[in-house]
Design brief:
Helix 4 packs antiparallel against helix 6. By secondary structure, the chain is mainly alpha-helical. It has seven helices and no strands.
C-alpha cells in the first residue's frame, strides 16, 4: 500500500495546516473570507484549527517543545470562548464578513499572532520537511 501516509507525514501535514489556519486567523475579515471562500467561514476556521492543532500535539511524531504544545493547548481551549452566535452557518459574503468582523475575534487574532511567533522554529522545520520531498 504505497499510498499510506506515515505518522511523520501525518504530523507534518497537521502542523502545516494548523500554521496555515493561524495565518488565516490573523487576516482582516474581507481578506480572510475571500481566502476561505465565503462559506461558513467562522465555523470552518475554528473547526479546522481544533482538528489540526489537536492532531499535531497528540501525534507520536510531535517534535514541538513542551512550551509549544502547551501554547497550542491553551489556544485551542480558548476557542471555546467564541460566542456560538458567531459560529452559525453563513453562506453569503455579507454574512461571513459580518461574522468575522465581530469584536470577539480581536483577542484571538492577537493570540494567533503570538502563537505563530512561538511556533516559528517548528514552522521552519516544517517548511524544510516539505522542501525536502
Amino acid at each position: 500500500m504505497a499510498d499510506e501516509i506515515t505518522l511523520e507525514e501525518n504530523f507534518e501535514y497537521n502542523l502545516h495546516n494548523f500554521l496555515q489556519w493561524l495565518e488565516v486567523m490573523t487576516m482582516e475579515p474581507i481578506e480572510l473570507c475571500n481566502s476561505w471562500g465565503n462559506y461558513n467561514v467562522a465555523w470552518e476556521l475554528v473547526s479546522d484549527l481544533n482538528a489540526d492543532g489537536a492532531a499535531a500535539i497528540s501525534s507520536p511524531c510531535n517534535y514541538l517543545s513542551a512550551q509549544q504544545n502547551q501554547a497550542i493547548e491553551e489556544f485551542l481551549a480558548s476557542l471555546g470562548e467564541i460566542p456560538k452566535s458567531v459560529l452559525v452557518g453563513a453562506t453569503s459574503i455579507v454574512a461571513n464578513q459580518e461574522a468575522m468582523s465581530h469584536p470577539c475575534w480581536l483577542p484571538f487574532k492577537a493570540s494567533a499572532s503570538a502563537l505563530l511567533k512561538t511556533l516559528e522554529p517548528a514552522a521552519t522545520r516544517n517548511k524544510e520537511y516539505f522542501a525536502s520531498l
